[in-house]
Specification:
This protein is an alpha/beta fold and 471 residues long. Helices cover 39% and strands 21% of the residues. Strand 15 and strand 16 form a beta hairpin. Helix 4 runs antiparallel to helix 5 and helix 8 runs parallel beside helix 10. The site of adenosine-5'-diphosphate has 19 residues, from loops.
Length: 471
């Protein structure tokens, strides 16, 4: 059966006006059989996780005090938008609060192991998405639509890696179909929380921060939907982070490969894992602006463009650490790279960018939790040096592979900024490099000016494929 998935992020669910707006956007697309995926209200997940941290240092009461103003925000949405549904929803918010009190009390004054703490965080955080789903479901109902909140933990079945669980796709697809198809067949709009799932044993898990996008894609793949729509607070994927480049503009069309690189290297508008399920089923992902629903958007599609010219967007990611391993033993030896990567594998640490020379390997990481152990083992292979507080910049465009002079243009624009770890991605659609974190903003601003803000005689035009071309 045809359907679309519509995901609303926390920035599109800040309060009563935003909920009403989201409900209207869904209602306007009712004929396409929407399945709605929602995030927690903006800021609520941060507060819930801070509540758990607070319990480690103080007590459950202090942890809960941080949350009360967020429960009040939910009550305000109920007061403004609901009447018949209001008592049921007030009881649900109160139940959620009670559940959190119990969870926090169970952890107070106990020294939890890492895994137990992550499991507790997931259980507490799941309340954000569950309440949002109930609220939006009720708002739709009060507006005269048939809608039903669905507990996403019944649909998204995951492994037990609390804090960043991986969905078990076969189980998830089967469960999602069985819970959602009947509702769709009876013209009822299912509304699920994103980000959350459960193990086969029924323990609550989450897919990692920003994971509601991923839920939307998984559900879209499970139902073989026509389109996965990510509704957010900006008009699609922009040529750079708008907080750094205020003149950033919408890229109308991206290939899956381009969008994946941008998401992976810091364009927060899309969770990096979002595209996998969509790519596999060739389902377009559209990033839309909930503040201007009929305005500009970005569509991400499978195939790459046929006549690309040059740079489409710039992403950046801060908080990166680079590691360099140098050893003369690498010269002409085999098995050396494997030995290095086995160490990262052993500590379950993902490596982002890798460059090699005859005698050294440089790589970048975000997650430094296991770095001391990793370095101790790497030192058996060679000398190791670490640079913290780095940022990765990633310039993306299918055209990079065929346009001469791009690298020269990039590096001459930031010639006074020290650059390391330069890599033209294996997909040849991106060029990534590391700079000092303190200069990342400036580098993005200058590159954005160079590639997207120059006068009309130069490179400002964007063609219908979203590619900047000589005007
Ligand atoms: P949501 O709550 O909808 O999930 P997010 O805050 O996760 O929203 O993502 C949207 C934000 O991503 C935007 O407000 C913007 O600040 C940021 N962002 C970073 N890079 C980009 C980019 N290249 N294009 C669009 N937005 C970007
Ligand atoms: N609410 C979760 C977060 O803030 C998931 C999401 O918004 O995608 O990370
Ligand atoms: Mg997000």
């Amino acid at each position: 059966m045809n359907s679309i998935v519509m995901k609303f992020g926390g920035t599109s669910l800040e309060g009563a006006t935003a909920f009403q707006n989201a409900a209207r956007i869904v209602a306007d697309r009712i004929a396409r059989r929407p399945v709605v995926v929602v995030s927690a209200m903006a800021g609520f997940t941060d507060a819930l996780l801070a509540g758990v941290r607070e319990v480690a240092t103080m007590d459950a009461v202090a942890g809960l005090a941080l949350l009360d103003k967020h429960f009040d925000r939910h009550y305000r949405v109920i007061d403004v938008l609901l009447s018949k549904e209001a008592p049921r929803l007030r009881a649900l918010v109160e139940n959620s609060r009670e559940e959190i009190v119990q969870l926090l009390n169970s952890a107070a004054n106990i020294n939890l192991e890492h895994r137990q703490r992550k499991a507790l965080e997931d259980a507490v955080a799941s309340n954000g998405e569950r309440l949002s789903a109930e609220l939006l479901g009720a708002v739709l109902t009060e507006n005269g639509f048939s809608a039903q909140a669905v507990d996403a933990r019944r649909c998204v079945i995951t492994d037990s890696e609390f804090g960043c669980a991986a969905p078990l796709l076969a189980e998830t697809f089967a469960a999602s179909k069985s819970h959602l198809t009947l509702l769709l067949e009876s013209s009822c709009v299912p509304v699920l929380g994103g980000f959350i799932g459960s193990t086969v044993l029924g323990e609550t898990t989450t897919l990692g921060r920003g994971g509601s996008d991923y839920t939307a894609a998984i559900i879209g793949a499970a139902l073989d939907s026509e389109e996965i729509q990510i509704w957010t607070d900006v008009p699609g994927v922009l040529t750079a982070d708008p907080r750094i480049a205020p003149k950033a503009r919408t890229v109308p069309r991206l290939s899956f490969a381009e969008a994946s690189e941008l998401a992976y290297f810091g364009a927060r508008v899309l969770h990096p894992k979002t595209l996998h399920p969509a790519v596999e089923r060739d389902i377009p992902v559209r990033i839309c602006n909930s503040r201007a629903p009929e305005g500009r958007s970005t569509v991400v599609v499978g195939e790459s463009e046929t006549s690309p010219q040059t740079v489409k967007a710039i992403a950046h990611k801060t908080g990166v650490t680079t590691v360099q391993i140098t050893s003369a033993r690498m010269l002409g030896a085999y098995g050396f790279l494997r030995a290095i990567f086995e160490i990262f594998d052993k500590y379950r640490t993902a490596v982002d960018v890798v460059t090699t020379s005859e005698v050294s390997v440089s790589l970048s990481l975000d997650d430094t939790t296991a770095l001391p152990q990793i370095v101790a083992e790497l030192e058996k292979l060679g000398s190791v040096s670490i640079e913290e507080e780095r940022a990765i910049l990633c310039i993306v465009g299918e055209g990079l592979r065929s346009t001469p002079g791009i690298a020269a243009r990039i590096f001459s624009t930031i010639s006074d900024i020290n650059v390391s770890l330069i890599s033209q991605g294996a997909s040849r659609i991106n060029l990534t490099f590391a700079v000092e974190e303190a200069r990342a903003r400036e580098a993005v601003m200058r590159l954005h000016k160079e590639f997207f803000e120059k006068s009309a005689e130069e490179h400002t035009a964007i063609d219908e494929w979203g590619v900047s071309v000589p005007a």
